[in-house]
Amino acid sequence: MTAATTGGAVGESPPPAIELIGVNKSFGAVRANRDVRLFVRPGTIHGIVGENGAGKSTLMSILYGFYEADSGDIFIAGEKVRIDSSEAAIAAGIGMVHQHFMLVDTFTVLDNVMLGSESGPLLAESEALAASKLAELSENYGLHVTIDAITEDLPVGEQQRVEILKALFRGARILILDEPTGVLTPQEADQLFRILKALKDEGVTILLITHKLREIMAVTDYVSVMRHGEMVAHRTTAETTKEELAELMVGRKVAASTAKPAQEIGAAAIDVQHLSIRGTKGVPLLDDISFNVRAGEIVGVAGVSGNGQSELLEALSCIRPITQGRMVINGREITPQQPCDPAEARDIGVAHVPEDRHRMGLLTDFLARESMILGYHRRAGYSRGLFLDQAVISADCARLMEIFDVRPREPEIKSANMSGGNQQKLILAREIDKQPTVFLVGQPTRGVDIGAVEFIHGQLIDLRDKGCAILMVSVELEEIMALSDRILVMFDGRIVAEVKGSEADAKTLGLMMANAYEPAATPQPAVP
Amino acid sequence: MSEGMKPLPRWIDIGVVPMLNVAMALVVSGLVIMAIGEDPYEAVMVMLNGALGYQEGLGYTLYYATNFIFTGLAVAVAFHAGLFNIGGEGQAYIGGLGVGLAMLLLDDSLPAIILLPIAIVSAAVFGGLWAAIPAYLQAYRGSHIVITTIMFNFIASAIMVYLMVNVLIEPGQQSPTSRAFSPAAMLPYMHEVFDWFGVKISRSPLNLSVVWAALCCAALWLFLWRTKWGYEIRAVGFNESAAVYAGINPKRIIMLCMIISGALAGFVGLNEISGVQHRLLLNFTAGYGFAGIAVSLMGRNHPFGIVLASLLFGLLYQGGTELAFEISSITREMVVAIQGFVILFSGALAYMTTPLLTRLYNRGLRLRTAAREAEAA
Predict the structure, then answer these.
(1) C-alpha torsion sign, points A212, A423, A252, A249
(2) What DSSP string runs through B161-217?
């Protein structure tokens, strides 16, 4: 264990692992980092929190040499360094584990680890060297991986371990992890935290970038808060609270989780019976799914991403044809023989806010008013004969921007130039405004700042209270638990559990998400 | 790397960048001309004068530009749906065949005022249908449209040779051309049109097609940016997943877009067959279909940009012809090489300078904000 420097400690404390002084970085007129100061003690886990767009990623990119700071100094272990490339960062002992893994899926673990740092032209020789070094690392840090497994066959948690090993293999003594738990179940995340603590005990310094305060509280020693490109506070984790951090991140008090008043539940608006979808290779993407969603309730779909939730949304919104089974949506029966299409789905009162707004929800290259009519561009009012009625569209876009507080209130802005939260609000505005009776929503608050999260959750509750049947897919368990009246848990294309919203707890849901829940068995002992 | 950089504003992207590309092409051409011992300045002056300096030259320049507008628009409209139509050449060829067949069939029985719309429609229908086959193969069978449209150029060429040599050749002729149309089937030349209003201009091949080309530009702009079809085409081209989400059927859009594209390319047949040759013959497309790709790239797939690019290409064609005529050591092949440089720099290498300009532009922005802040302080 590292000796925590107590107040009365005598002698010189070791130099900080990382010290940043006055770091500035601008992109055009946007100042992504202003006068950032950071002090990271060696052998600690240091968290950096902040909303999306607060400048965390830019700062880490500067540390890892993707960008160079406009001004400011970087000291690593007390020495001033210039990091102008990722090679320089590696040389300075900095390793990075990206949010999206940088692994070649078809390579073995060993190949991935040594990729780019082969010791000579002959592969066999490098492999032998790398294998022995890797074995040593796994031993020292308790990071166990199968070195000759093909990377894509490994579970996500283990792929992440490969990323960590890759960094250690290159001699990293400082490890930056960018939103590492986004793709993990709570159990996998706990396992990751155990690894991080083990690394800390071996003297590795860890920088953890996240927007999840639970993780900050669980694992870090110190935490720094960023807002609008500035470091606004530094705290010792043990002496702060989630509430204080949330307030520092947003710059004002944040309401606690959304209240859930009782409501009237009506007839089933979505009724799905034995639905299956097969992928191109015959692999089942959805496997014999049955459930319903009734008017006036929110049904949350929990699960680690990639377990069929996307396919379920696409099936219900008629984007993806179904292979087997039947769905009845607002009285319209949909079977493989009687397919539906997204345009017809809209006509029968189905609105859909897709999971990925850049891939589906809007057209980033189009103007806001053009994105605002996506899917409804043929409706009377927007469209007159062959032509689109520009005046009506602009006026309507301005009206929705006002109601849903989309900023800037500028129908002529390019969609790409709005922040994530405002893009999401624009999409929600577009879909909610059509007064749907069935509302499908995926990741309603992904990449959205905390202020907008509150607003969006409020909108969903309002919509439910008006009698709309809502199916919500989200990877944020907190969101699922805060909003859902019922929760479906998906694993490997199946619904493996259904729980009442009021009876759900994160731990049980986590086990269900990993399909490891056994109601009769005693719960796994929690290892700190 | 360029993430976080501000993109270039429109005026640089569609104004400065193309000018820079042309300038680079001219510099390289100048070096080549110097290498064979001629004066590049003189060569440029000959070209400019030949293309713009007198009425007949200008007429030729605009006549060439007309063809480039049609093929440029054809490439652009397909491009907005994310399709790369390399088949403009074949579509123009078959469009011309349509015009020729219609005129050969009807020129004796109908007056000019009826033959004109028939010529337009037949060019559009033949060109459009010729493009519809690769479009169908792409949309419903997954054959890549680049490959199929290239193949269809060869097929079009083979069909034309067969028809001209075996079927449509004027009896008793040695060269494979059809009989000449009757005067009713000839599009009026612009010098004739001006003459109706009492204005005398020099004779040139420039005909009424140029007016049709201008109308097509305006119509295409309206279509792409003001109609729901155009909206759907752009949506499919920019992000097919989002288009599907919006209930747009990309297969239908591919068909629609390629038929329009083929029809536009087919209008080259209008200009050439109805406007100038007044008979069906071989090889009247002369590479306009391929040049349309460069024209569209240079014009940033925007009708207005395409007009400018077409004028430049028209100038190069006409000026180049004059150049080969005036300076004997600069051969026809040399002129083709100069045209090639322009196509290379403004087509294939169109975005070569963009990263550099983006960096310079962002540096300029930073300097300006810094200066403003200093001023404020």
Answers:
(1) positive
(2) HHIIIIISSPTT-SSS--PPPPGGGSPPBHHHHHHHTT------S-BTHHHHHHHHH
Query: Where residue A281 falls among pLDDT bands split at 50, 70, 90?
Result: confident
Closest residue to B228, CB basis, from A30, A352, A377: A377
Domain residue limits, chain B: 25-355
Mutual orientation of helices A420-432 and A390-403 as an angle, nearest 10°? 110
Q: How far is A54 from chain B (nearest CA, A)?
A: 14
Asked if the model's pLDDT at residue A7 lies above 50, the reply is: no
SS (H, E, C) A400-465: HHHHCCCCCCCCCCEHHHCCHHHHHHHHHHHHHCCCCCEEEEECCCCCCCHHHHHHHHHHHHHHHH
The string of DSSP codes covering A379-399 is SBTTEETTEE-HHHHHHHHHH
Rounded to whole angstroms, the Cα distance separating A9 from A175 reads 27
State how far the alpha carbon of B109 is from the alpha carbons of B17, B96, B124, B181, in Å.
Answer: 52, 20, 22, 12
- At A221, is the secondary structure helix, strand, or coil? coil
Q: Which CATH architecture has domain B25-355?
A: Orthogonal Bundle (1.10)
Name the pTM for this structure. 0.80
Q: Does B226 touch chain A (CB under 8 A)?
A: yes
Q: Rounded to whole angstroms, what are the CA distances from A380 to A341, A393, B48?
A: 19, 11, 53
CB atoms within 10 A of CB A234: 14
Please give the C-alpha separations between residue A388 and each of A369, B90, B184, B220, in angstroms, as whole numbers.
11, 34, 40, 15
Q: d(Cα A371, Cα A1) in Å, to the nearest integer?
A: 55
Domain coordinates in residue numbering, chain A: 18-250, 268-360+435-513
Q: Does A77 touch chain B (CB under 8 A)?
A: no
The DSSP letter of residue B275 is: I
Q: A75 near A236, Cβ under 8 Å?
A: no
Q: What is the full per-residue pLDDT of chain B (377 aa) written as tens digits? A: 334 567 778 778 777 888 888 889 889 999 999 998 889 999 989 999 999 999 999 999 999 999 999 999 999 999 999 999 999 999 999 999 999 999 999 999 999 999 999 999 999 999 999 999 999 999 999 999 999 999 999 999 999 999 999 999 998 888 899 999 999 999 999 999 999 999 999 999 999 999 999 999 999 999 999 999 999 999 999 999 999 999 999 999 999 999 999 999 999 999 999 999 999 999 999 899 999 998 998 888 999 999 999 999 999 999 999 998 988 888 888 888 888 888 788 777 777 888 888 888 888 888 888 888 888 77
> How many contacts, defined by CB atoms under 8 Å, are there between A and B?
84
Report the candidate in B345, B336, B286, B288 with the shortest Cα–Cα distance to residue B316.
B336
Q: What are phi and psi of A377, to 5 degrees?
A: -65, -15
Alpha-carbon dihedral A192, A195, A197, A201, rounded to 10 degrees: -170
Query: How many CB atoms within 10 Å of residue A181?
Result: 22
Question: In chain B, which residues have their Cβ closer than 8 Å to the Cβ of A373?
Answer: 231
ipTM: 0.83
Joined tokens for residue B150: 């290239």
Q: Could you say which residues from 348 to 367 on chain B have a Cβ atom under 8 Å away from some Cβ of chain A?
A: 362, 365-366
Closest Cα to residue B253, out of B84, B127, B81?
B81
- Determine how β-strand A30-40 pairs with β-strand A18-27: antiparallel
d(CA A295, CA A439): 10
Domain A268-360+435-513, CATH among 3.40.50.300, 1.20.1250.20, 1.10.630.10, 3.30.420.40: 3.40.50.300
What CATH fold (topology level) applies to the domain A18-250? Rossmann fold (3.40.50)
Half-sphere exposure of B42 (CA within 13 A, CB side): 11
- Token readout for A289 is 């799914």
- For the segment A300-312, the average pLDDT, to the nearest whole number, is 89
Closest-CA residue of A relative to B359 is: A28
